[in-house]
Amino acid sequence: MIKITDLEKYYSTEEVRTIALNGLSFKVKEGEFVAVMGPSGCGKSTLLNILGLLDEPDGGSFLFNGIEVAGFNERKRSNLRKHNIGFVFQSFNLIDELTVFENVELPLIYTGVKSADRKERVNEVLERMQIMHRRKHFPQQLSGGQQQRVAIARAVINRPKLILADEPTGNLDSSNGNEVMELLTELNDAGTTIVMVTHSEHDAKYSHRIIRMLDGQKVTENVLADFKGI
Amino acid sequence: MLGNLINIAVRNIRKNQGYSILNITGLALGITSACLIFLWVENETNFDSSIPDQERVFYVPINQKYKGEWQTFHASPGPLAAALKKEIPEVNKAGRLVNANLLFKVGDNIINSNGHYADTDIFEIFGLSFIEGNAKTAFENLNSIVITEETAEKLFGTVEGIVGKSIFVNNSPPLQISGVIEDSPANVTYKFSWLCPFQHYSKENSWTQTYDNNFVDTFVKLIPGADRIAVDNKVRDILPLLTQDNKQEAFLHSSKDWHLRSKFQNGVIVGGAIEFVQLFSLIAIIILLIACINFMNLATARSEKKANEVGVRKALGSSKKILIAQFLTESMMTASMAAGVAVLLLYLLLPYFNNLVERDLTIGFNEPAHLIFLIGITLVCGIFAGLYPAFYLSSFKPLDIFKRINKPGGSAVSLRKGLIVTQFIFSIVFIISTLIVFLQIQHIKSRDLGFNKENVVQIPVNGNIIKNYNSIEEDMFALGLVQNVSMNSSEIFSSGSNGSGLSWQGGIETEDVLIRYRWITSNFIETLGMEIVEGRNFSNNSRNDSLNIIITQSFAKLMGPGSAVGRIVTADKNYTVIGVVKDYVYGDIYGPSQPVMFLSGLDEASFLYVRLKPGIPQGMVLGSLQKVLKRHNPAFPFEYTFVDRVFQTKFKREILISKLSQIFALIAILISCLGLFGLSAFTAEQRKKEIGIRKTLGSSVLNIWRLLFQEFLFLILIAIIIAVPIAYLLLSQWLQGFAYRIDMNFWVFIIAGAIAILIALLTISFHAVKAAKNNPSNNLRTE
Fold it and tell me: Of A79, A76, A60, which is closest to residue A6 (Cα–Cα)?
C-alpha cells in the first residue's frame, strides 16, 4: 500500500539547514500494522506528515497504492487524504466547539455525504466505539479515554484504508491506553492498515512490525508477528 | 453545510464571550455612528427634492464685477424675470419672490408673519399644492392672499371654509384669502407661510420696475429637454444687453445645488454645505474602519488557538474555501448582531442627534434606502472585517497539528501592529481636530468686533416705531434703566445694503469699489460702543447732517493718504466726511471688515438698538421696554433679541462641527480602546509563562506592567509621529478658510499625544496589572 524510497525532507532557517528525513525507505502492505519508534527529533512526525499527505517530501518517491503522490498539489492531496486516510492524535485534536456527534460527522461533511446517511453512519460508529450515550456532549465534558475513542471514531468514519496514529495513548492512563490499543487492533483485524508513531514499547507490541528511526534514517526493523496479508 | 457553519459561528461567539462583546460593541458603535451620519447626509442631499421636475428649476443670482473679480449676489432686478421669459424661449416659467413681514389680525388673533410677495408662476415653479383654490385664479385680485395650512390654523383654527374670508393687515386694506396650500416640507431652502401678488407690492414701490435696484429673488423653470448650458449662456447675455452694463450678469443656479453648493468665488461655485457632507461621510467610513480593525486584530490574535482547529479540519479533508466560508460566517454573524444592537442604539440616540443637528430625522425600515444601507453596511463590515482573518487562518498548514507549536506568523503580528497604529493615527487626528476647532471658535468668540455686543437689545422696526421714535426714545430714557437708544437701517451683523459707482476727492478707480451703507440715528455709534477715531459724530438733529457721512477706517484707507475728514464723497449727492470710526465686524464674521458709510436718518430704519444700564436684571428692563412699545406701537407684538445672542448664531455651523467632531472623536477613541483592551488581554495571556518566570526571578509588579505597556506605547508613539503632520496639513487647510484665525500651537499636538497615551495606558493597565499580580505558580502551571 505504501512504498517510500530514499525519502528526504529538510527544514531550513536563514542560517541552519536541518535534515528531518535522510533517504528513508520502507514498505507497508495493505492490512499491516506498523509501529515507528525513535527518540524525539528523529523525524517521526515529519514522516507522519508526509504519509498523511499533509506535507511534501523534498526528494525521493512515495507510492500510495501504486500511484506516485510525491508531486501532488494541495487539492489532489486533500482529495486523496479525505477518502483514504484517518488520523488519531496524542492530544485527540477534537474541535471544542463541536459535540461528539458533530466531531465524528465532520469528515463526512467534507466528503459530501448526505445528511441522512451521515446520521446513520455516525450513530453506527459511535455504537461501535461505545460512546453513543455521549454523542451530545462537548469534548471538554469527556474523559481522556472517551475523547480518544471519539477521535478514533472520527478517524474511521470515512472507512479509510490507512490510519495514521501519533502517540495515540500518550495522554492516557494505562487502562484507557490499553482500551485504545485494543480498538486499533480490532480495526486492523478488520482490514485497516495502521502506521503508528509511539515511544511506548508496550504499545508497539500490538503491531506486526517495528521500524526504529534515528536522525531521519531507518536503523532497524523488527518483525513481531507473522503478517500474512489480506 | 450553511447550517453547520452558522452553528459553529454561534458557538464560537458564545464561547469567546469577552472577545465577542468587544467586537460586537465596537462594530455596533461604528454602525450606529455611520447610520446617524447616513440619515443626516440623506436629509442634506435630498434638500429641495420635493420640487417637481427639480432638474428644470433654477434660481437666478447676479454676478457683479468689482476690481476685476466677480462677486455673486442673490438679489436681482425686478424686471429680470419677465425679460427672461420673454427673451428666452426655453424659459417656461419665471417668477419673483420678495420677503416681507406682515401683522395679520383675524378677530382677536394677531400674528406677525413672515411671508412672500410672489408672481403666479412661483406656484408652479415650486409645485405648491392647493388644498383650496387654484394657482390660476389665486392672484386675480390684487388684494388676495394664499396661505399655508399652518398659517390658516394659526389665524382661523381650521383650514376648511376660509377661502373668501378677510385678513386685516396693519395700515393696509384687508386681504382676501384666495387659496390654501400645503405646508412646505422640512428640508427645503425656500419655505412659505403666505403669498401675496407681487403687483400688490410693486404698485407702491415704483423703483421695483427698473434695473437699478437688485432686491428680488428670481426663479425660472425651463421647458422639458432644454439644454441647460445653452440657456445659461443666454441668461448671462441678457443683463449686459438690457442695461448696457457688461460688469454684471445673471446666471442659472440649479435647485439641486441650492442647499449644498451655494458658495461662490469669482462667480463660480466652489462648494458649500457639500463639504460637511463629504467630511462626515469620511468620518463615518473611518469609524467603521476602526471598528473593523478591532475585529481583524482580535481574530488574528486568537489565531494560535484557532491554528490547531484549522489543522485538524484540513487533515480531515476541509478545503480552504470551506474554512474561509466558516470564518466569514463568524464575522457576518458578529456584524449582524452588532447591527441589531446598532438599531436599538439608533432608536435611543436619534432624538438627541436630531436635537444636535436641528433636524427631524427618522428611521424607516420600510424605506428601501434605509434597509439597504443597514444591510449593506452589515455585509461590508462582516466581509471587510472577516476577510483578512479568514484568509490568514485558513492558510495555516495542517502539518502544524503534529508539531503542536503554532506560533502565529510574523506577517500577522506586523499587520496587527500596523492596524493598531492606523487606529490611533485616526484617533489622534480626531483629538487634534477637536482641539483646533474648539480653539478657533473660542478665538472668534473673543474677537474684537469693533463694538460692544453685550447688554444691547435688538428690536425689529415695524408699525409706528419710526413715526413715534422721538417719544419712544424719550420714554425709554425716562425709565432710568436704559443707557442709550438708536436705530439702524440694517441689522448690526448683516451685510446690509451696498452700492458702487461712488467717487471721492483724490480717489482712483473708485467706481469699481463696493461700499456698504447704513442710515443711523445720531447716537447709534455711542449705543453700540463704536469708537470714533477721527472727526465727530452726527448731531442730534438729523437734518443738519443730511449731507454728512461717517465712514469706517477701511473706507478712509481707500480714500488714500491724509485725513478723510472734510473730503467729499459723491454718490447720489455730494456728502462730506465728518468722522471716521474704527472698523467693525459684520457679514462674514471670520473675514476682514469691508468699508462702510453711515448716513444720518431714520426713515429707512429696520432695527431699534437699546443699550441697557449694567447690573439691572434683564427681565425687569424688557418688561418696561415692552410697555413703552405697547404704548407707541400697540398693534404689534413686542419682539426682541440680544445682540450677543445674534452673534452666537453666526457660528452655529462651526459649533455643530465642533460638537460632532467631539462626539465622533470620542467614539473613535472608545472603539480603538475596546480593541486595545482585547489585545492587551491577549498579550498578557500569551506572555503568562514569561511573566511567571520573571516574577519568580524577582521582577516587581511595576516592572511587569512596564514590560506589557511599552510594547503598546511604542505603537502609539509611532501613531503620534504619523498623525501630527497629517492633522497639521488638514487643519491648516481648514483654517485657511478663515481670514481671522488662530495659529496652530505645538502644545495642541503635545496635549493630543498625551491624551492618546493616557487613554491607552489606562486601557492596557487593567490586564497588565492583573497579569502582573497573578501568582507566578499559576502562570507556570499552565505549561
Answer: A60
